[in-house]
Known about the structure:
Elements: H1 2-30, H2 43-50, H3 53-73, H4 82-123, E1 130-131, E2 134-141, E3 152-159, E4 162-170, H5 175-192, H6 198-210, E5 219-227, E6 231-237, E7 243-245, E8 286-289, E9 295-299, H7 301-304, H8 320-324, H9 328-343, E10 351-357
Antiparallel strand pairs: 1-2, 2-10, 3-4, 4-5, 5-6, 6-8, 7-9, 9-10
Helix pairs in contact: 1-2, 1-3, 2-3, 2-4, 3-4, 5-6
Amino acid sequence: MTISRTRIRPCLAPALESVPFALLLLDLLLGPEIRLVELLAVVPPLAALRSSAATTLRLGATCALLALAAHALGGGPARHAYPAVAALALITLCSAWAAHARLRSTRRLAAVQSVASAAQEVILRPPPARVGSVSIAASYVSAAASAKIGGDFYAVEPVRGGVRLVVGDVQGKGLDAVRTAATVLASFREAAQATVDLEAVGRSIECALSRRTDDEKFVTAVLAELRDDGTLTLLNHGHPGPLVVRRGGGREDGRGEDSRRGTAEPARFGLPLGLGLPDAAEPSQERAVLAPGDRVLFYTDGLSEARDASGAFYPVHACAPLVRHGTPQEALDAVRRSALSHTEGPLDDDSALLLLEAGARREIPLPPLAGGFDASCALCPVEDCSVRTP
């Protein structure tokens, strides 16, 4: 925004300042039959669109003086110019007030956007580029104008020997969806390092959603854990399955089987979170072993349901070559460009992308769950912590 103002004001002010003198010159050259000096009245409103109130007043005063000069040089009595000058003064005052109101609203909007941007970054903070041997890249596009977060979300939390993550989509849109996403993310970040098994993370999110007092919304989500030894664990609560892309060119699903779709579809989907249903609705746990360089693309339906002019969905499985090449962030940028090319315009839904790349395998021994350790210590990424539970 600062760069834009810097470019506009130096170019606009000299241009407007030259307009009154040009009108006066043309008015004198054309003679009394064609009066162009009345067009001076448009200068203050034009100045109010981009300039400050002081600049608008200065240009208005210049136009008034030139209007008087035009009548004097034309040979007419000065009193005939008084009505035009009075009208010009009134227009200038109104334009200056409009310029002041515009700048005040612009400052307020900038302050609100700054606060909103900070709040959005707290809710949907970018993940680290690398955790242990795992490389991470993320991309988010909101369907709402001037927003960085909507109903889609992701979060990555480092744990000892790997990472845990969640990618999901809240039913509906708007502020209610953002509040629900914030509830899910806060619960996940707390539970990711405090529970030994991934199923318990999902139950913690379900519990947090059940305590809401606002409009109830359900959430589809994929919970995942990628260990430094290459073990990928997936729990799918009614969400599109991630795309597993092997470095050598193959695609596999979450059970290690070849998949024509190329996405990791579980043997049994769990019901969406937030429905308040019993544990019997939990999804099956799927595992795969990733080799160094293998990548996993997590996404929301903003990508998979992006349509072209004929109504065809974006083929997520076909973007595997894009996911495979370049750095993780370059791969996500390529997927974004491919989706925009498919839709021939901006996406009409929120879209979250998260890409993980397995690194060199390494074994991280977990501390025993005894002798001063509790369950959360087994997953805490701090290896030399002096804190011990009683």
